Structure formats: C-alpha cells, structure tokens
UniProtKB/TrEMBL annotation:
Sequence ranges assigned to domain CUB in this UniProt record: 55-173
PROSITE patterns (UniProt xref): CUB (PS01180)
Lineage: Eukaryota, Metazoa, Ecdysozoa, Arthropoda, Hexapoda
Organism of provenance: Zootermopsis nevadensis (Dampwood termite)
Presence of keyword Disulfide bond: yes
Protein's UniProt name: CUB domain-containing protein
Keywords linked to the UniProt accession: Disulfide bond
InterPro entries tied to this protein: CUB_dom, CUB_metazoa, Sperma_CUB_dom_sf
Length: 337
C-alpha cells in the first residue's frame, strides 16, 4: 500500500530572503501563479512566493506588488496602467495600499494633479487623487459589501515629461484582523511615536508652485496603546517647512517659519487646515480645533480615538498659497498618569 500525507497550511503573508513581502504557497502553486520563490515558510513545507504584476493585471491574492513595466527602471509611456483587486476570500474587508515608491509629475500651481495621478476607485471609502512624490505613504480602502473589486490606476497625459515609477504593495485585510483600520481612517499608525506627512510633502519646490494637493478631506488615525491617554503633535524637528499650509510661504522670512508669529487657528482657517479635537497648547485648553498658517505649536489632546483630520480646498492661487509644502508632523503618545 502507498500512503500519502496531504500537507495543508495557511496562505499567510511572509518575508522572502530578498526582504520582499510574499505569500506562503507550495512550490507548485507559486509556479502556477507566476510568482518567484524566495525562501521557505510553513516549517519548510512551503515557499515564500513573491507576486509582482503590472499593467492590465488582476489579482485575488492576499499580497501583490503592483509595479510599472520594467521596474525598477522608470516608465516613460503615458498609457494608463491599472490593476484590479478582488477579495481573496469572503472574510476580507479592507485593502491596505503601500506606496513603497511612487514618483509622478508634480501638481500644477493650483495644486491640481492635471498631468498624471494615482487613482483608486471601486471601494466603499474614497481616496483623494494624488500625484508628485509619495514614496512610503499608505492608504486604507474598504471593500464594498457587494464584493466589487477595487481598481488602482496610474493615469497620465501626453504632457507628462517626468519619467515616473511606482512599486505599490496591496495587502488584503480580514474583517476580524487587528490590522484593520477603523472606519474613517485613510491612514492608520500603530506605533507609540512616528511621523505623518501630507501627500506629496517635500521641502524642494519650484518658484510660484505648490506641493499641497487640492480637494482632500481625510482622517489620520493613531491606535491608542494600552496605558497611554493622550497624544502630542509637533512639527518635524529641523525642517522649517514642516507646517506650511496657508498664506504664501514665499512671502515669509525663513526665520519666522515654525514660530507663533505665523501660526493661525480658528476662524482664520477656512481653506486648507488640520483638525485636532479638544486641543491643548502650553497646558491650556483652546477654543478651536482648526490649525493652519505656517506653524503648528506643540499640541496635545486626550480625545479618543486619536485622529488628525486633513482638509484642503479646491484652489491654491486665489488664496495666494504660493510655495506651500503641506505638513510633516511628529506624534508621540503620552502615558496615563
């Protein structure tokens, strides 16, 4: 008699020997999926299978890389490039989109992504249209209840002159997973401290341009750790431009950036601003939760969930918002006392 043991294991996420993320499959399954085996998993019964797909692709795997053709070389075509993501099982609720590398043409002087942009559609939650430099950013998108797929597209016009490239990780998240972002979260952070940047944030800028992208309204959530009761938001140290949201930054002396002289709040913030609920500055409660201008003083809140809301309006030039960068803010969770 011949006896055969069928070895079964979960197709969970793994890290390959090349440090890329993959999914644990049998070697035969990995080959049939046109993946690349990189190291072992499941007590050596499986291989860490790296799946990389490009234009006009579909995927229903729990992790996939979506890259431009011939990545890591830059892509020069203006043709639309997209991938369609379907749930890998009925217990999937969310898709995390990691922009490991995303370099596209900068927005125009109005802050509009009129030449090329990343477009994420089909989800139950909306994602703003973004362009420019967004490497190492991430977003979460909820799947529709009817299981409709989510589509991620890079759309370009013939006016695109920048060689663009992207390497995007697509992770499917189960409904019961602790990794699932809360409702209303476009970005979600779990660490005790970290840095949050607005889309396309950067210090370099062309004269009379902007890096701040228009028409955004989204929530940045930080998971409150056990034993921590409040959170502090501060500008990124050593970066003069780390909070430049309104009022032309080009007209402000560099020595004034980041100081109380150019910090604005409340009724002065009607176009582009952030919201920090129930805020305190210098241990004093404030009567407003809106902040804009060219400085954010250290701000603390105990309101939970820890959330920072970001709003930008539909234009930059009419508001004379020249050379704004957006923001780069550090957060730090504070233990209960």
């Amino acid at each position: 008699f011949s006896f055969f043991n069928v070895i079964r294991f979960r197709n969970v996420q793994c890290t390959g020997t090349n440090h890329h993320l993959g999914t644990c499959y049998s070697r035969q399954e990995c080959t049939s999926l046109q993946g690349t085996a990189s190291g072992s998993c499941a007590r050596n019964w499986g291989v860490c299978c790296i799946i990389q797909k490009s234009c006009a692709a579909t995927t229903s795997l729990n992790f996939t890389y979506f890259t431009n053709p011939e990545y890591p070389r830059a892509y020069t075509s203006s043709a639309r490039c997209s991938i369609t993501v379907s749930k890998c099982n009925s217990n999937i609720c969310q898709l995390r989109v990691d922009l490991f590398e995303l370099t596209l043409t900068q927005p125009n002087a109005e802050g509009a992504c009129n030449v090329e942009h990343l477009d994420i559609t089909g989800g139950a939650s909306s994602v703003p249209v973004i362009c420019g430099d967004n490497s190492n950013q991430h977003v979460y998108v909820d799947f529709q209840e009817d299981n409709a797929p989510i589509q991620i597209s890079i759309r370009s016009t013939s006016a695109a002159t920048t060689s663009h490239k992207w390497n995007i990780g697509l992770t499917q998240i189960e409904c019961s997973s602790s990794e699932r972002a809360p409702a209303g979260a476009l970005m979600y952070y779990r660490e005790l401290q970290g840095t949050v940047k607005s889309f396309n944030y950067g210090t370099s800028i062309d004269m009379d341009r902007t890096r701040q992208i228009i028409n955004t309204n989204y929530g940045v959530f930080v998971r409150a750790a056990s034993g921590y009761c409040s959170i502090e938001w501060t500008q990124t140290s050593g970066d003069l431009y780390s909070f430049t949201m309104t009022r032309g930054t080009d007209a402000i002396l560099p020595s004034d950036l980041g100081t109380a002289a150019v910090a604005e709040s409340g009724i002065d913030c009607t176009t582009d601003f952030i919201v920090i609920p129930n805020p305190f500055q210098n241990a004093m409660s404030l009567n407003t939760d809106r902040f804009c201008g060219n400085a954010l003083l250290p701000t603390t809140t105990s309101a939970k969930p820890f959330v920072l809301t970001v709003v930008t309006n539909a234009a930059e030039l009419p508001d004379q918002d020249n050379e704004n960068r957006g923001f780069s803010l550090n957060y730090r969770q504070i233990p209960c006392t």
